[in-house]
Amino acid sequence: MKTSWFLKFSNALAQVAGHASTFVIAVLLVIVWAVSGPLFHFSDTWQLVINTSTTIVTFLMVFLIQNTQNRDTAAMQIKLDELIRAVDKAHNALLDLEELDEKDLAVFRKRYEKLAQEARDNLRSPSSDIEMPSFPQDDKRDR
């Protein structure tokens, strides 16, 4: 299975940006800017720097949030992988799906969409003891 350069790059960047030391450096830069205000007599240029700094802080926060999300997602994926592994009828091929590219995921998605459609069709059959609710996508398909 081939991993794209973008996936490798974005994962590495998320790891670097999410380190505590990266955040500390960003905070120190903002503090240096604030302390330098009197030296520049709080000029228009210095005011422009605060606007830029605010953008930078916001930008850095995105990376911190991304790191948290990556870690939480990784933990959840491991837990889901364990559930898939532990359930007898589950397909172990579904382990680590998050590592696949979009093309490979589309193959799995189509297969499961087909299974879901077959299950809904079975519920609509006269022999089904469960009444199937009407879904908006079903209305479009029936027309």
TrEMBL record:
On whether Magnesium is a keyword of this UniProt record, the answer is no
Family annotation (Pfam families): Iron_permease (PF04120)
Lineage: superkingdom: Bacteria
Q: Where are the transmembrane segments?
A: 12-34, 46-65
Q: Which InterPro entries match?
A: Iron_permease_Fet4
- Signal sequence span per UniProt? none
Where does the record place the region Disordered? Answer: 119-143
- Quick check: keyword Transmembrane in the entry? yes
UniProt keywords, alphabetically: Membrane, Transmembrane, Transmembrane helix
One biological process GO term for this chain?
Answer: transmembrane transport
Which protein, by its recorded name, is this? Answer: Low affinity iron permease
Native source species: Caballeronia pedi
